[in-house]
Amino acid sequence: MKDNTKLVAAGRPHKRPLHPVNPPVERASTYLFPTYDDYLDGAKNIAYGRLGGPTHRALEETVTALEGGYETRLAPSGLQACTMGVLAFVGAGDHVLMTDSAYDPTRKFCQNFLGRFEVETTYYDPRATGDELAALMRPNTRVVFAESPGSLTFEVQDLPALAAAAHAGGARLVVDNTWSAGYYLKPIALGADVSIQAATKYLVGHADCLLGTITAADEKTANLIYRAALQLGSNVSADDAYLALRGMRTLAARLERHQQTGLELAKFLRKRGEVETVLHPALKSCPGHAIWKRDFTGATGLFGVVLKPVETPALKAFFNAFKHFGMGFSWGGYESLCLHVHPAKNRSAAAWTAPGPVLRFHAGLEDIEDLKVDLERAFHAMAAHA
Ligand SMILES: Cc1ncc(COP(=O)(O)O)c(C=O)c1O
Question: I need a surface site. Which of 81, 176, 178, 320 has the fewest CB within 10 A?
Answer without folding.
Answer: 320
